Structures are given as structure tokens and as C-alpha cells.
Fold these 2 entries.
Entry 1:
Amino acid sequence: MEAIIECRNLTHFYGKRLIYENLNFKVPEGRILGLLGKNGTGKTTTINILSGYLEPRKGECLIFGENIRSMNPATRARIGLLIEGHVQYQFMTIRQIERFYSAFYPQWRKDAYYELMAKLKVAPGQRIANMSCGQRSQVALGLILAQNPDLLVLDDFSLGLDPGYRRLFVEYLREYAKAEGKTVFLTSHIIQDMERLVDDCIIMDYGRILLQCPVAQILSNFRIYRCQTDEYRNGEALLQSLSQAGGGKLYHPSLIRQNLEFGSFLSDAEVGRILRQEQIGYSQLRSERVGLEDAFLSMTGKY
Amino acid sequence: MKTFGKIFLGFLTAVIILWQLPWLATFASSKPSRHPFTVYSCMIQDFAMIDASGDELVYTDRQGRIYTEEQFDSILPLLYARQLFSEGRFPTEIHGRPVRFQEARRHDFFFRSSPRDINKVKPGIYFLLESMSGRVDLEMPDDAFRVNARGIEFIDMETNTLKPEKSRIFTEMMKSKGFVFPARQISGNPTAQKEYDEGYLLSDAEGRLYHLKMMRGTPYFRQIPLPEDVRPEHLFLTEVEARDMLGLFTDTQNRLYVIRMPGYSVQAVDIPSFDPEQENLSILGNLLDWTLTISSPDSVRYYAVETSGFSSLGRYSYARESSRIHGLCFTSSADSYVKPRFY
Amino acid sequence: MFKAVFFKEWLKTRWCLSAAFVLCSGFSIYIASRVMKAIELQGAGHIWEVTVSRDALFAEPITFVPLLIGLALGLFQYFPEMQRKCFKLTLHLPYPALRMTLVMLLYGLLGLSLCFVASLILLWIPLAQVFPSELSSRIVLSSLPWFAAGYAAYLFSAWITLEPTWKRRVFNMIVAAFCLKIFFMAPAPEAYNAFLPWLSLCVIALISLVWLSVLRFKAGKQD
């Protein structure tokens, strides 16, 4: 499958603070990819670079094979951009904004926009500035649907939306993207939304990509392991050896009294083998499958 | 566009720095440079000064002699004629020449010219007063005039329309005296707040000098005969109380001339040069002599001339400290234009 | 697309532009009526005389009006773009960024021209009735630098508003303040006659500064 987005060797600093170095990833065609990461791991940086509003210190970002910094306007027409908070021109009304955008896109689908607008309880003459965040998100979505781009880049689409609108947005978007074979790259701070929406995810940790894989793989393979251990008095050394054990495949081990907890993609048998190999006395090893949010937290740590 | 923008921003920043920093430095460090008031004394036949740089006024002369205020009055009897006269000390003669108080008073005159008034865009509209109305007080006319290539045009101010008949009569009169339109220079003092009116001095396109005034509604127009090789450049109609002088002018060589009346005789003033476009001139004149002060950015020069033939009586000068900081400015004390210039 | 950009700019600036038009024209009408009134009370002769001998211009009340209009129009046009980084949407449109910037500036400059030309015509026509061409053109020529300052103020305002960082914005403000001062230094009427063509070229060149701000925005510069 052709890569719609390809980022090569992205390196960025804010002042002297390194955000990440030599970041590489690709987004294949027709996939919905979510970028997950805690605050400060560079999600916004990545999406800003991707949408062309941040010049990385090093590296380049290709979309449809063209460098985003020097992209042909005709190629840019194939990208739909949703900026943080569903921002649109505040001073326009529903009708004016449609009229404005339609002039720039020859394939503009006016009906798609008004179909969605019909569901909103707002007058066509109402200004966007006077709308709720939820209503605004529908306007922004409607405009993207009308633009009918091949790639959608959405920056924190859940920001400011109540659960109802969030659900509405997610469902509408997924249905549209899957039906029309669109590629989507998005971030959100609400992971439950991502679970419903995305096919693949990139999990970012400070300065690097921790994982890029299909969400289904996480949901089916990732487990949280809990057991009891007697060696809690020597806690620090225990956690240290666990983190290094198995080539870092046990994520963020934590110890509360004698209860040991960590996450891993490994099977029960493999985890047991590692624990024995490390000569850690344990009992009552249990594992459970978890949702994306718990998996994310387990992989990146709570702090 | 990006490169141009960066260069242009650099250019603007450089302009601001070159303009503001030297100005600030000068503003912070500058002391007002004052020169003593200097005037020629017919009694000591040399320059006398009042130095105001200390706490008290010091009356002195070029030799460094110190005078009391009363002594100073009496070495400048024509300048302080009123003071001396009120004290009964006004002399009856000076170096053998009999003087009368009234005569001395009438011959006092003051004239000044500054490059700032010369180097400016002039409106090109003038007012020609009636010089011989039969009334004591002068009155402003109800029309204005302009001089262009066609001739002289009078415009009725109330209706803002041409006065064709008056324009025709004046134009024909001027042409008949050989005036070639347009005028190069026009100088007059169009105000009713003066003793009498002498109209205007004009130089024509070919460098001849003329005198124009209006007497009983009709034109009075005379060519002023000039010496060989004198082409007038800047004209100054003076209208002095004594009525023995029509005006001053400089020629293309920056020589200063006086037009004496009656008879329009032109006499050169015995000073090296005066460039009205660059230098300030002030003349403090009396019955016997004039003190001419010519100041430029780098010097202040004083010349004394006697009033019968304007030959030199003496000269004196101060050098001026020019500021050592160079920079850019947009206005200048030497003209009334705004434009960038380095100093 | 050209029309669409103008449509968007119009939505942002219609109140500001209408107010500017009324203000500019109003000041011209006020100045003209003041001259008429003075002529009625003191006679044309006196008014001509003070214009010639005392450098009276009568147009002084309008001195800073174009400047304020330029600043306001720049703010009204570009502040909404910077609100929550809306300008990203504008630059994301399939239209070259430089051309987009130029079209937006062209809109502003045309809007200003509409106000300024109306103002100058409303000033010049009545003055030409009561003054000879030398004096009416003297008044108009003396006021031209103020209108040039209006255009400069607009471009400076765009340059400052579109600049993404505060540090640089303050620097831009200082540069703009000094540059704008140059338009208001006349010691006498028609003092700018020779310099104004060059000054106007510099005003046109200010367009390049706005492009610098756009590039800095695109590069994601932050404080």
C-alpha cells in the first residue's frame, strides 16, 4: 500500500529543549491513524509539522509524495485540515462560510455540507462566533466533508466537545472515511474516542515513538499482569531488573506493597518464564486484556 | 520577496539607528553655543560686544576693554539713540558729522534673511497694494496676482475669477518694458502693516531686474539698470523708513547689492560673499554704518560697512563648533523641506 | 477565488471600512465647511492672505485620521485571522500563500484608497471653488503625506498583527512608530513635494514586510 504520509528523520527543538530526534513514520492509504502521547511528547509539534505550520529543525514530511513546506496548492486541496478546537472563521455565518470555501474547491460537495447543517438547530444566518463548540465542530466537519479530501488531518478533535457531540463526530467521521477510502491522521486527548475511531495508532513517549501498530493488535494482545511478590522490601532493585528484563517488553512495572503490576504484549507463559529467569519469587500471576486507555497508560506510565 | 523583505527591514532599521542614535547623543551632550551680541561701534571704530554667557552681562569690545552699561550706550550712540536722548546725552555730531536724533531714528533698520524662508515651496500668489491711495493707512487689495508664462494675472478673491482687463493692462505694460515672462523671482511685503508700499521687485526669465507697483490703479513698472555681468538671484524688497533704499539682492556670484533710491542706483556691498540659500543674514543698520551678521553652520562672520558707498569698515568672525557626530536627519534648519540627508 | 478572498475580507472589515469612509469624508466636509464659514465671516481676502503669508492650511484636523484608519483597518482585517490561529485555514486553501497575502493586502489598499480618494475629492472640489489652483493644490499637496501615512500604517498594522511572536511584534512596533513619524515632520506647506514619491515607493516596499510575518507564521515561530 502506498504511504500517504511519510515523515523522515524529523528533529525538533523548542529553543534548546529537544522534542524528538530522527522520528520516522508512514501512514498508509485508507487507514485512520491516531497519534497518542502524553502532554509534551510532541503530538501538537508533529501535527503542526504535518499541516505545514511548523518548520522542523531537521527532516522532512512528505504528503502524497510532496514536501509539505513546498506543496503545490492543487495537492493541498486533497488535504482536509481541522485545527484544534474546530476553529473556523468566527465572523462568517453557515451560509457565508460555505460560499467562501466552495470557490476554492472545484469538486465541492455543497449537499454534504447542508445535509449535516440541517441536523444542527441553528439558523443559516447565525454567525459561527455565536455557536457552541459542538455546533462549531459540526460546521468544521461539514466543510471537510464538502471539500472531500483524500487525507484528513485533525488536531485534537475532541477538544471542547461534550460526549454526545464527540460520539456524533466519531461516528460520522468513521463512516465517511471507511465508505470513501479516506486516510485520516488525528490526535485526541480522549483515548476512548480513538478506540472507536482509529485503525492504527502511534504511541509517543518523550523523544521517540514507542509503538506503531493496529489498535486491534493492542486490544487483542496487550495484557496487564498482576502478581504477588515477597521481594517488595528490595523494591527499587526489583523494578529496575524487571524493566530491563526481556528487552524492555514489560512496560512500566509498579509495586504497591507486595502487589506487582506491569503490562506486556507477551503471553502468560513467556511472562512467567521471564520472571523465573530473573529469579523473582511470585505467586498468583493473573493477566487481563484491557482497553486502549489502560494499555496506553501502562505503556507510557502514569507520570 | 523574502530576501527583499529582509533587506528592506534591515534598511529601515539602519535608517532608524542612523537617525535616532546621533540625535540622542547630540541631545544628551549638546550645550547651547552662544555668541556674544556683536555690533560695529562708530565711536571706537571697532566691534563691541555684549557677552551673555556668564551670570551677568559683560560689555566689552574686540580689544577686551570692559564698559559699564552707560559707557556702552555712548559708544553706540545710534543704536541706543533713544536711551541717550532721554538722558540728554545724544551727541550733536559724530566724528565731525552733525547728527540729529530724528534723522538717526529714521535711518535705523533691521533686516534678516534665513535659508529656511528661501528654501521652501512658495505659494506663487501675491497681493499688490495700492501705493498711492491718498490715504495714510495702507489697505489690502481685493485681488491677488500670479505671474506665469502668459503674463501677470489678477484674480478677484471674492469670486475667485480672473480680472481680464487689469491683467491685460499690467501684462502689456510689463511686456512694453521688455519683461520676459515668467518671472524668476518676485519679492515684496504684502501687508498693510507698514509705513508705505513699494510693490515688488521682480527678475524676469532673462535675468533683468524690475520694480513693479500700483499707483492709482495703474501699473508703475521700471527696469532697474544693473552693472555688467550682474545677474540677480535672490531679491529682497526692504521698504525702510528712510526711503533711501528700495531693496537688496544677491547675484549668481553671491555678491550682495543695495538698490538706492531715488534713481535705482545699484551699489555692491563690500563683503566677500553671502549665499542666501545656505547662510543667515541679519543687518543692523543706522545712519552711518551697517553691521552684517552672516552665520553658517561652521562660522559666524561680522562685517561693518559705511552707508554712503557700502565700503568695508571692519570684519570679525567666530568659528562654530560643528557637531562631530554624523547621522541622518529629515529636516534641517537650512530649509523647509522634509527629505533624508546625511550630516 | 479572487472574489472569494475579497468576500471574506469584506465580512471582516465592512463596519470598519464604512466607518472609515464616513470619518474621512466627514472630516473633509468639515474642513471645507470651516473654510467656507471663515470666508463668509472674515472675507475671502483675509483667508487668502493667511494662506499665503502665514502658511495656513485649514486641513490640519484630518492630519492623523488616515493614520488611525490605516491602523484600524489592519487590525480589523488581520486580528480575526490570528484569533485561535485562523490564518492556518486561510493558508491551507489551495491558493499560493504569497498570492493570498497579496490579494488580502490589495483588498485593504483598495479599501483605503476608496476612503482616501473620496476624502481628497471632497476636500479639493470645494477648495477649488474659493481658492486659486495654487492654494487649493497647496493644501491638498500638504495633506498627501498624511494619506501616505495611512497606507503605511495599514501595512505596518498587518505586519505587526500577523507576526506570531510577541518579542518580534514589539520590535516591529518600534520600527513602525519611528517610520510613521517621518510622515509628520513638515515644517512648512508642501515640504514633502520632492520626497513624497520616494516615500511612496518605501510604502509599497512595506508589502514585503507583511510577507516576512506570513513566512514566520508558516514556520511556526514561537516566543
Note: The longest strand of chain B covers residues 289-296.
Entry 2:
Amino acid sequence: MTTDFSTPQRQNFRGILVIFLMDLAKRIKQNIYAFLPLLSSNIRENYWQFIVIGLVLLLILQLLYSYKSYLNFKFHIENDRFFLRHGVFKFTDVDIAFDRIQNININQNLIQQMLNVVGFEIETAGQGKAEITIKALSREDAVELKRILLKHKADQVKGDEKTKSASSQSVKPETLFHLNLKRLLKVGISSNYLKGLGLVFAFFATLYQYIEDILSNFYDVDVDETYLNQIPETVGYVAGFIIFIITAAFLVTIATSVIKYFELKITKSNNEFEVDYGLFKRVNQVIKKNKTQVFEIEQNPIKDFFGIKNIFISQASSEELNKKKKIGIVGVTDDEIKIMFQSLFNLPFDQNFVVVKSSKRLMIRLMLRYSILSIGIGLGLFFWQNLVVSIIVFSILTAIFSYVAFKTVKKSHVGVNESLMKINSGSIHTNMKYIGTHKIQSLALKRNWFQQHNQHADLIIYTASGSERVSYLKYNEALKMINYLNYKVESSQLSWI
Amino acid sequence: MLDFQNQTLNISHLPRFENVKGYPVDKAYLKVLRILYAFWALFIFSGLFLLDFFVGLPALAFYPILGFVVVLFSLIILDIELGFHRRQFGIRDKDLIFQKGFFVFRQTIVPYKRIQHVEVKQGLVFKAFKIYTLKVYTAGSSTGDLSIAGLNHNDADKLKAQILKVADLDDN
């Protein structure tokens, strides 16, 4: 069955359900705090009729809204342009010329997997939000649409380099890298636990009231009061609680990385890489050589022990990049990094850089920031507990922060050579960012009041995928660096995209 | 130390942006800034006092808020008054330079060939003083874009013309 895209098309019929469920999930996520009062049994008992009626009404409204938005969502192709009309109360018309399309992603989240449809994303390099998401298409339609939309691009490439593409077109896409479960577990174990810890804490913070409710129902006591009156007994309880939290954070971290990067696979075809990953939400992303802005390698002591590293690739995007938008290729070995690096930059991985280090004064800035945090925690503990606890925690925090700040200063440097720049950062972990100098959009020097008087400057580098900052360089070295980089940008004939 | 040996290029021969002659923005812009901060100060302080008068804020809340607002405004006013002479733009063959700030001094270089589009804007107060804001957009993050406020008509036009002449812009 082939679909004729030249007439206005709706999404797949099952799309109604997909749109409804996805909208619903989004609404619940946005208004999660509106459900908090429900945790109180008092409110539940007295107002349950209103709550049920209200929820049913909202559900019906949402269903109508989603149905209307399904009906109004129509797209078609005409004269090498992609047209889309969508909206519920007001219509938006989108019109994209094929040659403006940068990238097409086909992905499938849990809802879409259950209903056997795929999501379809069109990325453009325009200003502002020009991205299009079609939430439900059958897989055949999606593949066909992708083929049509990208055909123009392929033709162009063929015209540019006839012989090359002719030979490479016949070559089947080869699998470059396949992450097995064993290595994926290693990635999970060597991840940053702070995020997992944050998740666990957030989880308990929202449920704290609820847990207290249950406990006080069972034992008929006020948790706060007994807790304060029986400090010796609670020490053991607190220790147990901390161990529990740490274990939970450990497991949550491993689980999230396994779920996110399950069956990570990279295939190489022509001049681009295709990355597939995800357990519940299967994501398919394309890494294009000329769209790549920043090539980031992440390592830490545990990863070194396992002999693995993570790569994150940022591509030009119309939106500000966050961690989510970076394409992560986790658990790779040095050899695989070399292959990726070589094919993205056309340069060997071993590069010599002229290096400028951050000044030791950066330590003062970092310690000032950290001390605000540790003083805050110390004061909080002082009022909540007593002076001894607060002083112990404060000194431990200060010691940890001093070590982290020291490591941060030691690792912070920037290097340049003929065609690349490398920004090194990190504290316990190490982050190396490689950027082709011709990818730089603009440059800035920033000097706060102290830096103006002690002759230092922060160097900020803007690329199409966000900004990078190198803190506290000596002023005259920062000047040389910015002049050199600027010269490189302006003398280069290469395009940033 | 930085040492670019082994290269065909001698670092000391590179064009140096710190030696570029800077042109100050129009003096009228200082008047605009003064009007704006005077307006906001009046608005916020009168609002605070009126709120205190009619609702009766507790002293524990009122004085810290008042102190915070006073410190904030004095910092803003200092930054504007002392930093005004630092608001300068420079034009070179291949790039545009802008610097500003007293407490945080910031110098930005935008190469013409990375400019996506240019915009000349005029706000309400700006209109009365016949000054303009030139905004230069790159494909980079929005903080890397340049916004030169307080140009007179002549400078704004000249700058825009220079950028359009050199930059390879899309026609739209």
C-alpha cells in the first residue's frame, strides 16, 4: 500500500489515541502539583464526588481537543515543498522547502510502540522553532515520506560528487558499533549518581507527606516529635535510611542508563552515522558530518577502570541545546572513538594543541560559590539539629568541595591548533570538547570587576549548538587566543554547516 | 605561555581586536537609560510604599525587601553611569566588535560572515530621542548575538549597510 502524499493527508487513524494519550501524559506532567492535595485523606473523603466529576470532565475535554487536533492536522507535498496545516482554535500553516530540511528523525515511544505507529520529526536550521513533529504515521508511510523529503538532498550530493556517491551508494550501511548488555551495565555503574540521587530525593520529597500520613495512621504518633525526642535510636534509623537512599540512587542510575541506551547501535552510511537506542522509546538519530558542532568525550575514574568512554555529539540546532539534545554514544572504546573522530573531522585523533590553562584564581571563585552552598546547609542543620552536627557536615562538605574545586582548576584548559580547538573541563570526571575552529559563530571576552583589576578574563565561544566557556585565563593569553580563533574563523573558507 | 611556533603564521602579526578604535554610542542613549531607571525606581518604590501603607507589611519583610531593592538599583545606576563611556562599537573589514559594562565588562566579536540577519529597531522612548537599536543574529545561541543599543540614525544605517555589503546573507 502506498500513500499519495500530494493530497492533504491526516495522520494514521490510530493517531487519535496516540495524540490523546501523549497530550494526556503531557498535561499530567505539567500539572502534577495539582494532584498533591489528593494525597491528603481528608480532601479525598470530603470531596471525592467533585474530584471524580472534575477529572471526567477534563478527560472528555481533552479527548475532544485531541480529536479536533487530529482532524485539523493535515500535511502534503507539492512542488518540492512540505506543507502542514495544524491547530485547534487557530490554524498554523507551515511550509518548508525540501532543501531547508536538515534532518529527519523517526522514533517510537512506548505509546507509539503499543499502537504500532512511529513519530516523525523534521528538523530545519532556521531561526526559532521551525521543527515539525508528526505524532503518528505507519512505519511504511514514515519511511516513504523520509525518502521523498531527503531525495532532493541525495540528488544534490550526487550532482556534487558523482563518482563518490555512486560508489558509496552501492555500499550497504555497515554497523560500526553495537553496545551489548554487559558494556551497558558498565556504563550504568560508571555514571554520575547525583542525578539518580536527585530523582530518589524528589520522589521521596513528594511522597513524604503521604508516608507520614500512613505511618501516623499505623502507630498513632507524630513522626516529627518522636524523631526529635529519641535521637540516639534514630541515628541507626538515619544510617539505614542513608544506605537505602544510596542503594536506590545506584539502582535508579543504572536502570535509567540501561533504559535510555538499550541496544545502542551505530551504522555508517555515506558520510553520516545513524544512531539507534532506547528500550521503551526507540530513538533514531542521524549524525551528519557538516552539522556536527561539538564532539565531546567524557571519562571518569570508574570508566577508565572499565576501559570505556562516553561521546556526546552536538549538532547545529535552532533551539538552545540541553543535555537531552546531545546525541550520546556511551560505552565506546578508544579505537571506536578514533574511528568516529576521524570520519567526523577528517583528521587523525592524535592532535597537538597549544594549551592555555585557567589561572589558580579560578579556585577562589569556585570556593566562594561552594561556600555559599555549604554555609547554607550548615546553617540549616544548625537550626534543625545542633551545632555539632552542623560543624561536622560543614567541614566534610568544605573538604569535598575544596578537592572538587582543586581538580576543576587543574583540568580547566583550552587548546588550539591549525584546525581544531579543544576545551578541557571537569572535576572528578574529565570532559574534552573538540570544536572545528570554522564552526565558531562569535566570540566574547568577559571580565568581572575583580578580573578587570587582576588581569584575567573568561573566554566564551559561541557555536550553533550553544556556548562554551573557559574561565579565568590570563588576560594577555586570552587576547592572543581570541585573536587567533577570530583569525581562523574569518580566514577559513569552510562553512559552519 | 602561548607559543605558536612551528606555524607558518606568526601570532604577533595577527590583527588585534583590542587595538581597534571604538566609537561611542549616542549621548542621547544615556538620557534614555536615565529616564528608564528613574521610571522603574519610581514605580517600584512607590509600589512598595503604597503596599506598606495600605496592606501593612511586617517590618521583618518590608526592610529586607527595601534594602534589597535599594542595593539593586544603586548597582544598576552605577553600572549605567560609570559604564556608559565603555559602550563602544568597532568596525573592521571582517567583523563587528561591541563592548560594554562596568561591573562585568564584556567584549564580543561577531564575524560578518557568520551573521544570519540584521535588524534595526526603535522602541517607544528611543523614538523620542531619535536613536535606534541594531540587532545582529548569528546561528549561535542567543547570548552570542549582538545588540547595540543607542545608535543615532547615521551610525545605525552605516553599520547595517556595512554588514549587508560584506556578510553573505540569505535574501529573506
Note: Residues 289-358+412-491 of chain A form one domain.
